[in-house]
Each structure stands twice: as structure tokens, then as C-alpha cells.
Design brief:
18% strand, single chain, eight-stranded parallel sheet, alpha/beta
């Protein structure tokens, strides 16, 4: 089991744009302990960011900057071979924008997590992982970095003296190597509520997730993610939180 009986539950929020809404932000904010808020590059806009930040702060939910490639059309799910220095600037821009809005509502950004293709790229792409870390270092060394266990991102963040927070995905499939199954491949999404809840508990209590080929993969996590755009995300998150509580775990933000 984790070193303490406390686990964070996070979800991606604020991923609408203008009049278009994606997911149930209000419903998820009643369940999760940390909110990865889109910063306008893959989704989100100033009004959406402010609304989500205000409600997260009111509910005691930690706000994280969910940074992305500059890719609204592709929802940030397409790899972009952007120069590391430019990527650092893009991430810094997003981080500062969300933090400014959060501060206007009486809170602040508590951590950083990349989204979509940038998240997956930073698992192995040393240059882009370092670019993400450089943005955090330039803005606030006190911000933790949330990412995949064993990723280049967490290695680079640790080397820079930042706090690293490994996370597991209750509603995503894993490869035998411990990475996420690409969304267009079979087994990428896990939607059965019982299975999602069971996987979340096993990740935290046993440090194990079963890959798509049946392999048991070791991983140690301090946060569990349920995607906000997964069908039935609010119910999945509720089931996960209930299952964690039944296993003797208290849910709370990892970043105070």
C-alpha cells in the first residue's frame, strides 16, 4: 500500500470552449480532490477557466494547470514536434494565465500536468519533458509535476529538484511496458464501473495494474485519474472514490 492511507483523485476539467461544453465539471468537482484545468491551448477559454477555478476553490479542490500543445482543432491529441524553447514558452503562458485567474478567485495553481499528446510525448521525449520542467522552474519551483510513473517528465522534474507525483489511470488501458494504450487502439478505454473501481483500488493498495495482454505491471501512484470526457465520468469517479474509501483510504489533494 502507499506510504499513507491518503490518495488523490484527479480529473480533467474545463475542456469546453465558448458555448460548447464537454463533460460535467460541476458533477466532477463534487467528487474529485484535484482538478486538471484546461488552459486554452487544447480546450478551455478565460470564462470557462474562471468558472471552474471559482467552483474548485469553493469546494476545496486543488487546481492544476493542464497544459497542452497549441492544438484546439485536435484537442491536443496530435504530437507536435515543437522546439523545446518554444514549448517552454507555451507552457509558461498557459501556467501563468490559469494561475492569474485562480488568484483572482482567491486561490492559485497547485501543480502542473500535461494533457493528451504532450503527456504521452513526455513519457519518452527527453527534450519536451525538459521543456515542461523548464517552464515550472521559471515560474514556481514549488509546483509539483503530475505524470506517468517512470516517465522522462518525472525524471527531469526530480533532477531539477521539483516534487514529482506519479499517477495511475483507472479508466485507461495499459501496455505491458506500463504506458497508456493509444486511444485509437483496442483496449484504450475502460468503461465498466466495477472494473474501473477495482483497478483504482489495486493500483493504490497493491501497486499493480493489469495490462491489455493480461500482464501484471508494477506501478506506484499517489494520485488516480478519471478522465472528464470518459462516458459516465461522474459516476465512474463516484464509484472509484467509494471503492477507495471501502479499502480504508481517504481521498485528499496531494498539493495543499
Amino acid at each position: 500500500m502507499a506510504s499513507s492511507a491518503v490518495i488523490d483523485l484527479n480529473a480533467d476539467l474545463g475542456e469546453g470552449f465558448g458555448i460548447w461544453r464537454l463533460g460535467d465539471d460541476d458533477g466532477l468537482l463534487e467528487v474529485v480532490t484535484s482538478a486538471n484545468v484546461a488552459c486554452g491551448f487544447h480546450a478551455g477559454d478565460p470564462s470557462t477557466m474562471r468558472r471552474v477555478c471559482a467552483r474548485a476553490i469553493a469546494g476545496g479542490v486543488a487546481i492544476g494547470a493542464q497544459v497542452s500543445y497549441r492544438d484546439l482543432a485536435g484537442f491536443g491529441r496530435r504530437f507536435i514536434d515543437v522546439a523545446p524553447a518554444e514549448l517552454t514558452d507555451d507552457v509558461l503562458y498557459q501556467l501563468a494565465a490559469l494561475d492569474g485567474i485562480a488568484r483572482a478567485e482567491g486561490g492559485r495553481v497547485r501543480y502542473l500536468k500535461p494533457h493528451g499528446a504532450l503527456y504521452n510525448a513526455a513519457v519518452h521525449h527527453e527534450g519536451q519533458a525538459r521543456a515542461l520542467v523548464d517552464a515550472v522552474v521559471a515560474y514556481d519551483r514549488g509546483l509539483p509535476v503530475l505524470g506517468l510513473p517512470g516517465s522522462a517528465l518525472l525524471r527531469e522534474a526530480e533532477a531539477a529538484g521539483l516534487r514529482t507525483v506519479p499517477e495511475g489511470f483507472a479508466d485507461r488501458g495499459y501496455t505491458p511496458e506500463g504506458t497508456l494504450v493509444p486511444r485509437r487502439s483496442p483496449g484504450a478505454l475502460v468503461s465498466d464501473p466495477d472494473l474501473v473501481a477495482e483497478r483504482a483500488v489495486r493500483m493504490v493498495v497493491e501497486g499493480v495494474v493489469v495490462a491489455v495482454d493480461g500482464t501484471a505491471v508494477d506501478l506506484s501512484v499517489e494520485s488516480v485519474c478519471v478522465h472528464g470526457d470518459t462516458p459516465g465520468a461522474v459516476e465512474l469517479a463516484r464509484r472509484v472514490r467509494t471503492a477507495l474509501a471501502a479499502a480504508g483510504l481517504r481521498t485528499a489533494p496531494f498539493a495543499a
